[in-house]
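Final report, Chapter 2: Outcomes

The project's central promise was a pipeline that accepts a single protein chain and returns its three-dimensional structure in a standardized token representation, suitable for archiving and comparison. That pipeline is now operational. To close this chapter, we reproduce one record exactly as it appears in the project archive, with the input sequence first and the structure output second.
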Amino acid sequence: MEFEVGFVIDKSLKACGVVKRTQVDQIYGFTVQGSNGAIVPATDAAQELWELGLDNHKKFFVNQKPETQLMIEALELGEYQRDDYWLPLTESEDREARRRKDMWLAENNKSLVIGLNTGCSPVIPYKKLTVDYHRLLIERIQAKFPYAEIVLLGGPEDTIRNGLIQEGYSVISSETESGLRDGLISVAACDVVVTGDSLGMHMAISQKKQVVAWFGPTCAHEIDIYDRGFKLLTKSPCSPCWKRTCEKAIMCYDQVSLEEVIDALESCCANRLSGRSTALNPAP
């Protein structure tokens, strides 16, 4: 196994170890220093991204670059041009997305699909809103946007929660047990997606949806939604923190302004219905 070039973007012993077991002439990103397991920049270009992993102040408050830019610069892939995500559907997936959207709209004679991506991975569990918050959000959306159909999005870990969120409301719960590509199809069938900082958010960005993304434990400035929607910050004074455990009585997800979500949704829905590609600023 021999390669001219190797790219290691993940600062982990597993990722670096895989490359160590092969013959690579030039490594970009990160590598392991000797046999002590220390992960270090493979070239000077990765120094900035490496330092962000060591300095919380720099990561949380000084850096303003999105992760996409940091990766392109660290891997020396050329001048950063803010290239959009590109995750195309196959022809059959695209047909299914269109069929699914038509079916959802026809169910209650609606004209727009709002997807609520309700979950996140278990690594940082605080990147999802509570069941009660989602239920309150559904009530507000149905009152404010009677022309919109609400679809709950998520993966296998969200099946039970989505059932609890849906109970008693006229909303659609998308399939959560059929794999990543099927979840991507459901996201592609939506017009607007409300989400935390999760895989579902990245899927929505990749399908060029209007996105209302809220941020609590993670860094909003590391995400680029390409002017299609809004990034909303929790009011929690300790955000961001990147903590995987937290014992605070009032969590960051409890301090996301519902009014800001609705205002952002209003702009995104109007934007989607009018065919504009860039969202207008929400009402103050």
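Archive annotation: The beta strands are 2-8, 23-33, 38-41, 112-117, 148-153, 172-173, 192-195, 210-215, 229-233.
This record, like all others produced under the grant, will remain available to the consortium after the project formally closes.
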